[in-house]
Write a structure and sequence with these properties.
Helix content: 10-25%
Structural class: alpha+beta
Distance between the termini: 95 Å
Radius of gyration: 29 Å
Oligomer: single chain
Largest sheet: 4 strands, antiparallel
Low-confidence stretches: 12-52
Strand order of the largest sheet: 4-5-8-9
Number of helices: 2
Number of strands: 10
Shape: globular
Order of helices and strands: HEHEEEEEEEEE
Strand content: 35-45%
Length: 175
């Protein structure tokens, strides 16, 4: 009986220790005020903890000559969301498309069949369509509403977003 009582007492003590440890874990950690990042002037945003990196420099787009000579057009899929109708348009690189029955104009920039980007440069790793991308500017009523890259294999990465229309890159066209 004495041994059973000792075991029960030890079990009870162990349970109490476990409960008290658990309660300590659940207690909120005291909050300390966040350190304010230094600002270089009242009108600028706070510097990052890694120092002021300044404005981001725009990356240089380099289209290899082998790409320019092979790929001269792109094919877009344009969707009218209200009518749920899609149309394909083939547009020359460096030209523009006035989308029929809309106030949209698409200006086609560089096409890269194998899009690659590093810290300073955007280019094509090869002339194979491994990661096709095109740089476009979309204007509505003369105002820029989208400026960026469209990717045919990854259309949800930085997509063109509009309440009435959809625009995706289908493919590059060799010419």
């Amino acid at each position: 009986m004495k041994k059973t009582t000792q075991i029960l007492a030890a079990g009870l003590a162990l349970s109490m220790v476990m409960v008290s440890c658990k309660k300590k874990e659940e207690q909120p950690v005291p909050k300390t005020p966040m350190q304010q990042a230094p600002m270089s002037s009242p009108m600028q945003t706070p510097m990052s903890p890694h120092g002021n990196t300044g404005p981001k420099a725009e990356k240089k787009v380099v289209v290899p000559e082998s790409i320019k000579s092979k790929w001269n057009k792109v094919k877009f899929v344009f969707e009218d969301k209200a009518s749920k109708k899609s149309s394909e348009y083939t547009v020359g690189i460096g030209s523009e498309l006035k989308v029929p029955n809309t106030n949209l104009r698409i200006v086609v920039g560089e096409f890269l069949p194998d899009f690659r980007m590093d810290e300073a440069t955007i280019t094509s790793a090869s002339d194979m369509p491994n990661n096709p991308a095109v740089r476009v500017e979309v204007f509505e009523n003369g105002k820029v509403i989208f400026k960026g890259w469209l990717y045919s294999k990854f259309p949800t990465i930085h997509p063109f977003e509009h309440e009435k229309y959809g625009l995706t890159l289908k493919e590059g066209v060799k010419g």
